[in-house]
Amino acid sequence: MKMKFYPLQFEPILKERIWGGEKLKTILNKPISSKITGESWEISTVEGDVSVISNGDLAGKSLNDIIKSNPEEVLGTEVYARFGKQFPLLFKYLDAREDLSIQVHPNDELAKKRHNSFGKTEMWYVMQADTDSKLIVGFKEDSNAAEYLENLKNKTLLSILDNVAVQVGDVFFLETGTVHAIGAGMVIAEIQQTSDITYRLYDFDRKDAAGNERELHVDLALDAINYNKIDTYKKYNKELNQSNVMVDCPYFTTNFLPLDGEVAVNKSGNSFTVYMCVEGDFELEFDGVKSKYIKGDTILIPAALKSFVLRGKGSLLEIYIS
């Protein structure tokens, strides 16, 4: 059955985390009731956490439902040809009240072999950062498994990892194998492959409410880690009313679109497009219908919607697969 498509929003899937806080409510208007909400999964088809449409005639249907019945119209012709009826990306907002664990994600080959999953290439856009907030991204210098294990054993792992101060608007691209951790005091928009596979290397000896330390995955991580020093920071332009490329990789393209006025958008139908509103607000007009969005909103534009207009004063992340 052919559906009449329009810009889609989804019920946020909220995740309590030991390191989470309340900024997803105070900054991004998410309906949280917990003081340790760490993540809002905005668009997901991870098993057990499939997004449900919250607006319009399709409200109540899951993203998997509409992909199953209309794969090319939702995903796009090229995305469907490449991934079948799998939605290949996962979109999140994260609030780190405390440091996250130090972790790494496997590549596609390892993830497929061990977990029958995609790998987890991801990127971060810093939406808010307290003074002195920092990220851990890779090694300070080229390292190796022996040096890594020795420092892990001696609880000196932080001494060989790169610690980077951040500010609003910073972008980091983390290929699989990059050892990383989000530091305390920031809100981040995260775009990643559809995967929930994380190898936790070190968790600062924290205990949960029941007094237990979280599981570590030291052995699994050994051959997943890239031990070379890598540059994860991405510079990008900020030309008004233009799509400025931030990250362009085989898994996704993310542009920065600073809106001040009106932008007409024309798409090919090869891929869906997602907009994450990271500042201000905007209006989207399609087929004569206008919809308004605010900071923290995430919108999926099905590939069948090829022409629409954006208006407003704000900053958008524009994501698709090319």
Describe the structure.
The protein is mostly beta strands. It has 2 domains: 13-221, Jelly Rolls (Sandwich); 244-320, Jelly Rolls (Sandwich). It has 7 helices and 19 strands. A 6-stranded antiparallel sheet has the order 1-2-5-12-7-10, with no helix packed on it. Strands 14, 15, 16, 17, 18 and 19 form a 6-stranded antiparallel sheet that branches. Strands 9-8-11 form a 3-stranded antiparallel sheet, with no helix packed on it. The model has no long low-confidence stretch (mean pLDDT 96). InterPro entries: Carb_Metab_Reg_Kinase/Isom, Man6P_isomerase_Firm_short, MPI_cupin_dom, PMI_typeI_cat, RmlC-like_jellyroll, RmlC_Cupin_sf. Residues 10-117 form the Phosphomannose isomerase type I catalytic domain. Pfam families: MPI_cupin_dom, PMI_typeI_cat.
Topology:
Layout: E1 13-21, H1 23-26, E2 37-43, E3 45-46, E4 49-50, H2 63-69, H3 71-75, H4 77-83, E5 89-96, E6 102-104, H5 108-115, E7 122-129, E8 134-139, H6 145-153, E9 161-165, E10 171-174, E11 180-182, E12 186-193, E13 199-202, H7 218-221, E14 244-248, E15 253-266, E16 273-286, E17 289-294, E18 298-301, E19 307-320
Antiparallel strand pairs: 1-2, 2-5, 3-4, 5-12, 6-13, 7-10, 7-12, 8-9, 8-11, 14-15, 15-19, 16-17, 16-18, 16-19
Top CATH class of the largest domain: Mainly Beta
Number of helices: 7
* Mean pLDDT rating: 96
Give the overall silhouette.
globular
Helix percent reads: 10-25%
Q: How would a crystallographer describe the biggest sheet?
A: 6 strands, antiparallel
Distance between the termini: 27 Å
The CATH homologous superfamily name of the largest domain equals Jelly Rolls
Task: Please state how the strands of the largest beta sheet are arranged side by side.
Answer: 1-2-5-12-7-10
Q: Which class do the helix and strand fractions yield?
A: mainly beta
Sequence of secondary-structure elements: EHEEEHHHEEHEEHEEEEEHEEEEEE
Portion in strands = 35-45%
CATH architecture tag of the largest domain:
Sandwich
Count of the separate structural domains: 2
The rounded Rg comes to 20 Å
- Kindly identify the CATH topology of the largest domain: Jelly Rolls
The low-confidence parts are none
Would you report the number of β strands?
A: 19
